[in-house]
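Let us work through a complete example step by step.
Step 1: write down the sequence.
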Amino acid sequence: MKKLFVYLMVLTIILSTVLSAAAIDIPTNAEYNAMSGDELLELAKAEGGKLVVYSTTSKMSKIAEAFTEEYPEFEVEVYDLDAGESITKVVTEVDSGNIIADVIQDADARGDIAFNYYGKYLEAYFPEDICAHIDDSLETYGMPFYTSLSFWYYNTDAFPDGAPVNNWWDIIEVDENGNQKFELYSKEIGSESTYLALFSHFVSQPEDLASAYEEKYGEPIEYTYPDDLGFEEENAGYEYLYRLSQLRMTFIGDGDEIVEAVANSTADKPVLGLASGGKIGNRDDNNWPIAWVTELAPYVSGQNTNYSFIVPDADNQALGRFFIRYMMGGDDGQGEGYKKVMKEGAWSVRDDYVNKKNPFSLADSGTVPLNMEGIYDNYLDVSDFWTYWHDKSPNK
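Step 2: predict the structure and record it as tokens.
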């Protein structure tokens, strides 16, 4: 069995090398990009079709509802899909010649869409007037929609003086008897693309975690994961993932339930939960004593940018782009579309729109842009590494 695993790992490494990320040439239509919203609207009316949107955010239906209230001449149908499902459907539709979707919205956490599906299946719409208010670096992989973050949550009643951790290595610390300091709750790491993307980022830039380790313990990191399975040796990202995999963790598929477990914890049995920043809404809705951990070395988390895409051979080319403009808040960013997604825990990519529900800006969040190339190149290895070692965990 071990020999088979080693063989599969070698094959994975070869494939990831062949398919490693390269510079992206994003196809786009300059003529549409230069049009104003009014010009697109007139073209959209002439198309006269029903717009179909595949989306990973539950807020898209509310955006569509607001859109059709403002523009009753249009019909919009939204399909709420899990991350990655949309591109699978689009590939099937395009290859079969039966195209249904016009617009795709996806976080593309692992970079699969960006590095594999531009051209035949997808293109980007970069409206010149809106993009003038977006940092160029955010457009590297497509047209950004908004940014979300994942945070560790802690119980504010149990820790009234602030978060009990300020370093990623604090989270997985054990005492001399091997007892965990914290109970850890999250979605299952091996099946949650956002988490795997973050750990793939750590693996692609291991010096960050290595520095954080030395900052905490005052000495260089000690590598304890076995190095005979083909994974990169002495990588602090893998070391962190290995130590995490051997701890007792509780996996819950719903983020609301993760932060509920944090809310129900005590100082005697403290819980840390990893979940989307938007789950902070439970603090007010349910009066739960929860808060984000906002200071962690080397950084709090990675920035998960959501993107929008156009299906190039779909019927509603103008309407699709006009709807994306609406999603982005229209000409000045103040339209209803953007407001529907701008709850606490979501950050605008536009410099002319500030989500006042957030206590700090994205720049002041302590998070960093994710290394998409590094994520794409390491994602499969990181997934295999986690699955292998977590399956062998004595605390599984």
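Step 3: interpret the result. The two ends are 20 Å apart (CA to CA).
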